[in-house]
Write a structure and sequence with these properties.
Number of helices of chain A: 13
Number of strands of chain A: 22
Distance between the termini of chain B: 63 Å
CATH topology of the largest domain in chain A: FAD/NAD(P)-binding domain
Mean pLDDT of chain A: 96
Number of strands of chain B: 18
Radius of gyration of chain A: 23 Å
Mean pLDDT of chain B: 83
Number of domains of chain A: 3
Oligomer: heterodimer
Number of helices of chain B: 12
CATH topology of the largest domain in chain B: Chloramphenicol Acetyltransferase
Largest sheet of chain B: 6 strands, mixed
Strand content of chain B: 15-25%
Low-confidence stretches of chain B: 88-128
Shape of chain A: globular
CATH class of the largest domain in chain B: Alpha Beta
Shape of chain B: extended
Largest sheet of chain A: 7 strands, mixed
Chain lengths: 451, 447
């Protein structure tokens, strides 16, 4: 009899297992593939490894701006891919050793929920039956490939995040359907390596949900680097290597050696016996409350399978909320201070309300924004680079509502804004915080003083 | 010559009244017979007329005040007239509520008249607010706590830093934004949904809905509501009541009802006799056969009445009233019907004599919800009475008519709540059955 059974070893599942094991719970975790889930194997980590290779290559190419010259600068696509695999292997092994350290029973195989028996919740895997008092479902999500005519016939021309990471050779050209975070990160990578990249986006702007102004700035930067964009473009057909789309009433076509489909992800709610528990679903995934409880007592869900805030760090925190409540610490999931990062070069990072959302919700706010060049360190390290820091505060009390940045390395400093929002700090408190000098993070402080 | 208008004592048991409306304010000119103010006792409302022509020189109370009977309400005289001598300087400046307890016997007007209105006294008491130490004040200000509201533990009840800290220990940690809002709106969090249980701004506003603001209104109870609440609660707390339900064949009553309607159409009958009148008539007959039910339970003894004083529960705009028809056993069906109509009408108009409303005035009560379709209920006894009969609606029920023939017959439901301290189940059941027998064999001498 286990205290907690976890299906799925991604950032929700393995973090929950680690925390629960650490607190002394008897935990079993089922994983049909490799530990770490999409994040570690087909998402966050491999893409960041690739992007760092691309960034290093770009820095070397443009060293002249900093007075550094290199000759015969080149890259080896095979080696880049091999290093990515090595990093992933290393981190997967790291997760596995964490499971051992916290006495988590890891079962490799496809788990199937059998239902509730008088002895507890029952899950079978590899022909064995497991009983537990609680069940945490972290089955994650998978790339959604819309039923566009011709997409099935296009065969291995069509890629999702999974296939693109397994490419052995660099394509000379690529069409990316969907200019969201995943689309833009791969666009950035292949653009840096010299692949001809075209992004086809259905909405008026790339990176939907992020600050509109910053998204437009990033789009401009990459347009200058050579990416072609088709916005407001609805893909109607795929013909081999060609993507046919409608834009402003006209039909246009672009082609590429490979076509990446990155229009969104779907929660995985089928194939593991979820229906045996009568768990309530929403359109997006499993319905949960603020403590990640489903409608079935003792059954929880965390991560992408809930269908919203599809981010690894959301997933981990959701898993922690479940474990905290199971171990006697009241905890609720909050979504108002979850950061979002795009690891392009330059990076985009944001947390809290955007101006667009604040306006839509009728929240009275004030905004201040400064170019990144107000931070000395940024100027020193980004020759000819531009960026932006934008801070939203509440009109009446001056609490930090949202912070949005464009410019390296904003992914590393956005957490400061997360803490400010989590703690509902106002201008008065922020003004008394000491930031290290010289760092790019000082742009946050500068923008605070711009109010 | 100025005249003092006192608050009249309406009925022996009335000790205070609520002033519902002051109709003539200080400085108003009045004529003899003008309505000066209206007031209500526990069960009825009244208006006071001006005894003379003149000007309202002084009015001592406001709308909604509870005033002890026989105290001075107003002084009426000629403008500029000195009326101080009327008030007497010996009268203590005490709020009316405090006087209420001792003023049950008729106090001479002049002595009881308060010099200062109650409101002034009340505000004077409030001014002795607690002293807050500077350290406590500083801490309270940064933590958004209203220190003046705390019970001080320092010398002479001074609020000291420790008192503020004690509040902070019980309160979840508050975010900077939370503190600002708490200070401005004077609200405190009870739970925290933020980091490690820290209270966020949205933990501060659980009672206020953004769309509807507060979704409730605190309404002060009327005097009457208070009295009903007190009587009903004390009845359930201080007696051993339970209810028996039984049905009576209503065919006889319905047949009589038809006849009555016909007679009224023909003009041979002028008083409408309702089903309720007939049930009451039957109840009175049954009570005469069960004297133990027609009683008051007084703790040490049971008072058995020779006469039946029948209480009738009446639903009015201001709440439940139970007037009594005295000596109901002397009345014919016509007399009973007329009297029941009269007392019910007087209650609805607010013109019922207060002494008829006291629980002691009746020996047994009937509460009829049949007209609303109620099929069964458990009426609450009007203590010290021993029982109350609930009358329900008429429903068709299968009945064995003999020789294996079954038919649906109209039955009227009867719910008898009795105080088990006075009566035992056997006697209560026999009494209830007797009512049914009386109903089933009712004879009216009106045709």
């Amino acid at each position: 009899m286990f205290d907690l059974m976890i299906i799925g070893g991604g950032p929700a599942g393995y973090v929950a297992a680690e925390r629960a094991g650490h607190k002394g719970l008897n935990v079993v975790l089922f994983e049909k593939n490799k530990m770490g889930g999409v994040c570690l194997n087909e998402g966050c980590i491999p893409t960041k490894t690739l992007l760092y290779s691309a960034k290093t290559y770009e820095n070397a190419l443009h060293g002249d701006k900093y007075g550094v010259y290199g000759d015969n600068i080149r890259f080896d696509f095979g080696k880049i891919a091999a290093r990515k695999d090595k990093v992933v292997r290393k981190l997967v092994a790291g997760v596995e050793s964490k499971m051992k350290l916290h006495h988590v029973t890891v079962v490799k195989g496809e788990a199937v929920i059998q239902g509730r028996s008088p002895k507890g919740l029952e899950v079978t895997c590899n022909g064995e039956s497991y009983l537990g008092a609680n069940l945490l479902i972290c089955t994650g999500s998978e790339a959604f490939v819309p039923p566009i005519p011709g997409i099935a016939e296009a065969g291995d021309i069509i890629l999702t995040n999974r296939e693109i990471l397994a490419l052995k050779e660099q394509p000379t050209s690529m069409v990316i359907i969907g200019g969201g975070v995943i689309g833009m990160e791969f666009a950035s990578f292949y653009n840096s390596l010299g692949t001809k990249v075209t992004v086809v986006e259905m909405l008026p702007e790339i990176l939907g949900g992020l600050d509109f102004e910053i998204s437009a700035m990033l789009r401009d930067i990459y347009a200058k680097k050579g990416i072609t964009y088709h916005l407001n473009a609805k893909v109607v057909k795929v013909e081999g290597t060609s993507v046919i789309f409608e834009k402003d009433g006209a039909t246009e076509s672009v082609s590429g050696e490979k076509i990446l489909v990155s229009v969104g992800r779907r929660a995985v709610t089928k194939g593991f016996g979820l229906e045996n528990l009568s768990v309530e679903l929403t359109r997006g995934g499993i319905k949960v409350d603020e403590k990640m409880r489903t409608n079935v007592p003792g059954v929880y869900a965390a991560g992408d399978v809930t269908g919203f805030s599809l981010l690894a760090h959301t997933a981990s925190r959701e898993g922690e909320v479940v474990v905290n409540n199971l171990t006697g610490r009241t905890d609720v999931m909050r979504y108002d201070a979850i950061p979002g990062v795009v690891y392009t070069n330059p990076e985009v990072a944001g947390v809290g309300l955007t101006e667009e959302v604040a306006k839509a919700k009728g929240i009275a706010y004030k905004v201040a924004k400064l170019p990144m060049a107000y931070a000395g360190r940024f100027v020193a390290e980004n020759e000819g680079g531009s960026g932006l820091c934008k801070v939203l505060i509440g009109e009446k009390y001056g609490e930090v509502l949202g912070v949005h940045m464009l410019g390296n390395p904003c992914s590393e400093m956005i957490y400061g804004a997360c803490m400010a929002i989590e703690q509902e700090m106002t201008l008065a408190e922020m003004q008394e915080v000491v930031f290290p000098h010289p760092t790019v993070s000082e742009i946050f402080k500068e923008t605070i003083f711009a109010f | 010559m100025a005249v003092v208008v006192i608050l009249p004592k309406q009925g022996q048991s009335v000790e205070s009244c609520i002033i519902t409306e002051i109709k003539k304010k200080k400085g108003d000119t009045v004529k003899k017979g003008d309505i000066l103010f209206s007031y209500e006792t526990d069960k009825a409302s009244f208006e006071e007329e001006s005894p003379t022509d003149g000007v309202v020189l002084e009015c001592f109370y406001n709308d909604g005040d509870e005033v002890t009977v026989l105290l001075s309400m107003m002084v009426i005289g000629q403008p500029g007239e000195d009326f101080a001598s009327f008030l007497g300087n010996s009268a203590p400046a005490a709020p009316a509520v405090e006087v209420a307890a001792s003023a049950s016997d008729a106090t001479p007007i002049v002595e009881a008249a308060p010099v200062a209105p109650a409101a002034v006294v009340a505000s004077a008491v409030k001014e002795t607010a607690s002293f807050v130490s500077p350290r406590a004040k500083n801490l309270a200000a940064t933590e958004a706590i209203d220190a003046a509201q705390l019970a001080g533990s320092g010398p002479n009840g001074r609020v000291i830093e420790k008192d503020v800290q004690a509040v902070l220990e019980k309160r979840p940690k508050l975010t900077p934004l939370g503190k600002k809002i708490a200070a401005e709106e004077g609200i405190q969090p009870t739970s925290g949904s933020g980091l490690a249980g820290m209270a966020k701004s949205n933990d501060l506003v659980p009672l206020v809905n953004a769309v509807y603001n507060v979704d409730f209104e605190d309404k002060k109870l009327t005097n009457m509501r208070k009295l009903i609440a007190k009587a009903m609660h004390s009845s359930l707390q201080n007696s051993a009541q339970l209810t028996h339900h039984l049905g009576a064949d209503a065919r006889r009553m319905m047949e009589l009802r038809k006849k009555i309607k016909k007679a009224m159409d023909a003009g041979t009958l002028t008083t409408n006799i309702t089903l309720n009148d007939m049930v009451c008539f039957a109840v009175i007959k049954a009570l005469k056969k069960f004297p133990n039910v027609n009683s008051h339970f007084l703790g040490e003894n049971i008072r058995l009445f020779n006469k039946v004083h029948l209480g009738l529960a009446v639903d009015t705009d201001r709440g439940l009233m139970v007037p009594a028809v005295r000596n109901a056993d002397d009345l014919s069906i016509l007399g009973l019907a007329n009297q029941l109509k009269e007392v019910a009408g007087a209650c609805r108009k607010g013109a019922i004599a207060p002494e008829l409303l006291s629980a002691e005035a009746a020996t047994f009560t009937v509460s009829n919800l049949g007209a609303y379709g109620v099929e069964m209920f458990t009426p609450v006894i009007n203590l010290p009475q021993s029982a109350i009969l609930g009358v329900n609606t008429i429903v068709p029920r299968p009945k064995d008519l003999g020789d294996g023939v079954y038919a649906f017959v109209p039955y009227i439901g009867l719910s008898l709540t009795y105080d088990h301290r006075s009566l035992d189940g056997g006697e209560a059941t026999r009494f209830l059955k007797q009512i049914a027998v009386e109903i089933e064999n009712l004879e009216l001498d009106i045709f």
